[in-house]
Design a protein that fits this description.
GO terms for molecular function: ADP binding; DNA binding; NAD+ nucleosidase activity, cyclic ADP-ribose generating. This protein has 1171 residues and is of the alpha/beta class.
Length: 1171
């Protein structure tokens, strides 16, 4: 929330914003009675001392024609009217006309009138007696032909006399009366005084106001408490002020309260509008609370409590909904989300930072008084914007400080920022830190220095190992908006908040880093170790260099001896020539990448060590003999090339994770690891020289075991208690058979034993007991000939595996486990063996690529046996068609049929929400599926079909009806953005096809040569259009590439759309047809949007864009009538030309298209509607 150059915010509504009055007060009086006495004193007090803007009906104005347009306008544009009724007031027709207009304005609800009875009796005014009777006697004679005017004057006097006002004779002197009048004017005018600058607008405010509008619900009569929470400087107060300005005039009582100062003062501020001068201020908190409950219970109240940091004041000022009348709204802003929870404020939202565009606009306004940076300042402006990460307060402070400064001053200011936080920003953010207790401050500082970007669970464990309440502390800091948890469950902290934390620690000792409690900056750490200035004050050191850096000879590791209280140590990418002779035994976290020594120091006894992470080191061994490390949970020694053997694990009973991946020199794993009861993960991936490994393991807590590429290790026997092991990666081991004890792994879901060159058989009976097994990988096992040791007869096998054998040789059988399979290539055809229905109910992926499956090789009942199947890979096989039961695979999302050279027709496809079918390079493909079955796609959300190089699809009505039936279903459902598949920053469109073709039909009424086009959008009120259909012609590419994709991008869409393709390359031109739902277009109020289509080619060396791949593009706005025509068959969408497909050697772009999108009606639907 922040200020910019225009005032243009959406109405929050309790119907509209308060009117902006030109005058605060209109004074109506009889000049000859009061001009030089009472009126002059009142005017001076109002305008000069209270700064109100007053319109005074001076004599000079009266000299002109009867009541002028200027005077009428002044009455309309005044917030209040003070009518001073004196003895000769009624004798002036000018005054009476003026009063009539004031009364008329009041009755329209636009004016408040405050009458003053000056030397007259209110009763005489009401009944027109005394001097008022004399005046009207004259008026009736003078205006005998305008008697209705006279009656209007009389009625105006009666009405004004009935209003509450002041009788001058009740006051001792004029001064006392004037003081009372000024006080009342202030009470009436103050709620509409603008708290923020009315000349400016709030950048990024629109969405926030919409959020507030939903929570405030002005049409509801209930009492509502609404919370706004967020970090300091994010704009909570600014938003609350704007809301207050917009709606306060709709309430009987409206107060904006800053939660500072004594409670008594705040109570009196709330009560002042009710009690006015009738009672003395309250001086007792309890009585103040009683008064609030009693006086406001029948009033429509708006209270804004700003920057609340405790519940105390809130409890005594707005303790319960029952304290206020119907329609009341209580708004609370705070940095502490927990406070809202404690006060049971359920309607709340977090005010987040500005996005990059809004941040740049705000910064530019402050720095340049423009919406964008001036020429030459753009990149520097972006640096400042990136630095503050969208925090409005910091953007305003930094932008203002750079106003009218030259480029060199900007560069200098940026360098200064990199060294420390701006003082004003620091002081604002530090308010949240100061509210923490000692333990909470320690947790906050530890996170700022050591744990940003670390998994929440690991941070909690690390903090608790330091005797800090990690879980409670993390939750509290989240509630106080000091940290966040990202979508990957990592702990995050705003950059400026982290800078604030660094500055707090820097203030512990400005000159000497060695006297500070925490160090994380390179220069500070180098200073301490090169000058040997370490002290016992240092509790943690974290040095994470962006690239390898070698310290010079002055680096002194003996500095560690001066740090007896060091608990956290992390070095990353630091190269030093020699290691330390000692390390503090107080260490809890030791993370030293590229540790230089061959072992840890001999005297190092870190009894409270919880994490040991030493990757890419020179260690030959960790230590000699046994070490008692009861708190050690994590040990990571990846890429320790020189490590020969692991330590004795007997003294590490609570170890949970051990990672020894890629320790090439490792020969022996200590046998004590086999009985570790707490170990959850054991990784030995790539330890190809390990010879000594336990033959049996009994790790009851183990969940993950990796022995991949341990080519000299056999898979061990498993203990009966190993029920938690779910993932076993044992590819490339020396096992000749799987141990029968694998049956104990009842929780096993994935088993990979690929490339096991010695593996000869599987324990079939044991495998059948693994009911949770979902993935089984056995490829590349040349000696594996049979599934069970003794095959016996089929009837003797467990019912879960009833084989269907094809071919003449047992060696060519295709064996299949519970979720995967073992396949063998061979010249003779094979058949897929499936178990009885239900046995493979958990199978999600089936991979049968290049298995020489011929017609009949896939069981007819495949759709009934695999109810959970999501991925079916059948590429490179020789069948002609697929079984009809494929349509019964209700979970299928991915069907790969690439390079099935004999495939002629696709079966009916499942009517699933999401489906991708890849049928590239199927030379014989002529039909997709039966046209009559295409109407089944009733639940379709996303569909993709690629038929690259399938030139046999000619004159196919099935393709025509099928594809566009799918398109119509998608459009009719109005695809929402949340239902789309995401891949990085690129959206996969909900519908797209790729097929041979070189021309775009006239059905696409918007066409352009090259790789871009502009689509003119209809007016937003025309709700019939449902989206845009695109058609792109792209050329075949002869260059070498691994894969390429075409992207559709535009500033007007939410994400880029793309279609990827892989080699072998496209032999001729193709078409990409895709549908973009209307919901993906960010601003449908724009007149037009320009779309660009760019191809990117990817190789192992990187990505290269191509400017000549896309030849032509077309588009069409899709309307409901289009869909009806498609569904009724009235529109001929796809045209095909045999000549294109028969001319195998035709050059790209020559000849008619294989697929063209067309219609007999060439006129745009949009143009027809506009006509």
């Amino acid at each position: 929330m922040a200020l910019s150059t225009h005032r243009a915010s959406p109405s929050l509504a309790w119907d509209e914003s308060p009117p902006h009055w030109k005058f605060d007060v209109f004074l109506s009086f009889r000049g000859e009675d009061t001009r030089w006495g009472f009126i002059s004193h009142l005017y001076r007090e109002l305008e000069f001392w209270q700064a109100f803007k007053i319109f005074k009906d001076d004599r000079e104005l009266e000299i002109g024609a009867s009541i002028s347009p200027e005077l009428l306008s002044a009455i309309e544009q005044s917030h209040l009217a003070i009518v001073v009724l004196s003895p000769n007031y009624a004798s002036s027709t000018w005054c009476l006309d003026e009063l009539s207009k004031i009364i008329e304005s009041m009755e329209k609800g636009k004016k408040r009138i405050l009458p003053v009875f000056f030397n007259v009796d209110p009763s005489d005014v009401r009944h027109q007696r005394s001097s008022f009777a004399d005046a009207f006697a004259k008026h009736e004679v003078k205006f005998s032909d305008q008697i209705e005017k006279v009656e209007r004057w009389r009625e105006a006097l009666r009405k004004v006399a009935n209003l509450s006002g002041w009788d001058a004779k009740n006051y001792k002197c004029e001064r006392e009366l004037i003081e009372v009048i000024v006080k009342r004017v202030w009470e009436k005018v103050r709620p509409t005084i603008i708290l923020s600058d009315s000349e400016e607008k709030l950048v990024g405010i629109d969405f926030r106001l919409r959020q507030m509008r939903l929570l405030l619900a002005p049409e509801e009569k209930d009492v509502r408490f609404i919370g706004i929470w967020g970090m300091g400087g994010v704009g909570k107060t600014t938003l609350a002020r704007l809301v207050y300005e917009k709606i306060s005039h709709h309430f009987d009582v409206a107060e904006f309260l800053f939660d500072h100062g004594p409670l008594i003062n705040l109570q009196n501020q709330v009560l002042s509008q009710i009690l006015k001068e009738n009672i003395s201020p309250v001086w007792d908190e309890y009585k103040g609370t009683i008064f609030i409950r009693k006086c406001l219970s029948n009033k429509k109240v708006l209270l804004v409590f700003d920057d609340v940091d405790s519940c105390d004041h809130l409890e005594k000022l707005a303790g319960h909904k029952s304290w206020f009348g119907e329609g009341s709204r209580i708004i609370v802003t705070t940095r502490d989300k927990r406070l809202l929870t404690e006060r049971r404020i359920e309607l709340s939202f977090e005010l987040v930072r500005l996005n990059d565009n809004d941040a740049l606009e705000l910064f530019s306004h402050k720095a340049f008084e423009k919406d964008q940076p001036e020429e030459g300042f753009l990149e520097l402006s972006k640096c400042f914007v990136d630095y503050v990460e969208g925090l409005p307060l910091a953007l305003k402070i930094l932008g203002s400080s750079l106003y009218k400064r030259d480029l060199e001053a900007w560069k200098s200011a940026l360098d200064k920022l990199k060294k420390g936080c701006d003082a004003k920003v620091f002081n604002s953010l530090k308010i949240s830190y100061d509210a923490l207790d000692y333990m909470e401050k320690s947790i906050f500082l530890d996170i700022a220095f050591f744990y940003t970007g670390v998994k929440k669970g690991r941070v909690i464990e690390s903090l608790e190992s330091c005797d800090l309440s990690g879980h409670y502390g993390i939750e509290l800091l989240i509630e106080k908006s000091l940290i966040t948890i990202d979508q990957h469950n990592n702990v995050r902290m705003h950059g400026l908040v982290q800078e604030m934390a660094w500055e707090i620690v820097r203030q512990e000792s400005r000159e000497e880093p060695g006297l500070r409690s925490r160090l994380c900056h390179r220069n500070d750490i180098f200073h301490v170790f090169m000058r040997n200035t370490g002290t016992e004050a240092i509790k943690g050191i974290r040095l994470c260099l962006p690239r390898l850096e070698e310290a010079d000879s002055s680096w002194n590791c003996e500095c560690f001896s001066k740090m007896p209280k060091l608990m956290f140590l992390e070095f990353h990418n630091l190269i030093i020539s020699s290691g330390p002779k000692s390390l503090p035994n107080s260490l809890i976290i030791l993370n030293w990448n590229r540790y230089p020594s061959k072992s840890l120091p001999a005297g190092f006894r870190p009894n409270i060590l919880a994490e040991l992470k030493m990757q890419e080191n020179n260690l030959v061994r960790l230590w000699d003999g046994r070490q008692d490390l009861p708190n050690l949970k994590y040990m990571d020694l990846k890429w320790s090339k020189s490590l020969k053997e692991t330590p004795d694990f007997t003294g590490i009973p609570n170890l949970e994770e051990l990672d020894l991946a890629c320790c090439d020199g490792l020969v022996k794993v200590h046998p004590s690891i086999a009985v570790n009861k707490k170990l959850k993960q054991l990784t030995l991936y790539g330890c190809k020289n390990v010879k000594v490994f336990p033959s049996k393991i009994e790790m009851d807590s183990l969940e993950f075991l990796s022995l991949e590429d341990c080519s000299k290790v056999k898979i061990p026997e498993f203990g009966e208690g190993m029920k938690n092991l779910s993932l076993v990666y044992a590819s490339g081991t020396a096992s000749e058979e799987l141990p029968s004890s694998i049956e104990h792994l009842v929780g096993l879901t994935c088993l990979f034993i690929n490339d096991s060159k010695s593996l000869q058989s599987l324990p079939g009976t044991a495998i059948f007991k693994l009911k949770s097994l979902r993935e089984l990988g056995m490829s590349g096992c040349p000696k594996l000939k049979k599934l069970v040791e003794n095959t016996g007869e089929t009837k003797d096998k467990p019912p879960a595996l009833r084989q269907i054998f094809g071919g003449s040789s047992m060696k060519r059988k295709l064996y299949m486990g519970f979720t995967g399979l073992f396949k063998k290539k061979g010249p003779e055809p094979v058949c897929l063996a499936l178990p009885s229905p239900g046995a493979l109910s958990s199978l999600q992926g089936l991979f049968l690529d290049y298995c020489n499956l011929c017609q009949g090789g896939i069981p007819d009942d495949i759709g009934y046996c695999l109810p959970s199947l999501e991925w079916l890979h059948l590429s490179g096989n020789n069948f002609v068609s697929l079984p009809p039961s494929i349509k019964c695979l209700s979970k299928l999302r991915f069907l790969n049929l690439k390079r099935c050279k004999r495939l002629q027709q696709l079966p009916d496809l499942p009517s699933n929400e999401e489906l991708s079918v890849f049928a590239d390079d199927c030379d014989s493909l002529k039909m997709l599926s039966k046209p009559s079955q295409q109407g089944r796609f009733t639940e379709l959300v996303s569909f993709r079909l690629t038929t690259v190089n399938c030139f046999g699809l000619i004159d196919n009505e099935g393709l025509n009806n099928g594809i566009f039936s799918m398109l119509s279903r998608l459009a009719a459902q109005g695809i929402s953005p949340s239902s789309l598949s995401l891949s990085g920053d690129v959206f996969r469109p909900p519908f797209d096809i790729v097929s041979p073709g070189s021309k775009i039909s006239e059905w696409f009424d918007i066409q352009s040569e090259g790789d871009s086009l502009t689509v003119e959008l209809p007016p937003d009120r025309e709700s019939e259009w449902m989206g845009i259909v695109f058609c792109v012609v792209f050329a075949n590419q002869k260059d070498q590439f691994d894969y390429f994709q075409i992207e559709c991008s535009s500033p007007g869409i939410r994400r880029e759309y793309s279609v990827p393709m892989e080699k072998p390359g496209i032999r001729r031109d193709h078409l990409w047809v895709s549908f973009m739902p209307r919901g993906q277009i960010q601003d449908t109020t724009s007149c037009s949007i320009r779309f660009s289509f760019v191809a990117h080619f990817y190789t192992i060396s990187g990505c290269t864009p191509s400017s000549n791949c896309v030849k032509r593009c077309g588009a069409r706005l899709l309307y409901e009538q289009d869909l009806k025509n498609l569904l009724d068959g009235k529109t001929n969408i796809l045209k095909r030309s045999r000549e294109y497909c028969d001319s195998e050697e035709a050059e790209p772009g020559e000849g008619p298209s294989a697929i063209a999108i067309g219609s007999s009606n060439k006129e745009s639907v949009f143009k027809r509607l506009k006509a």
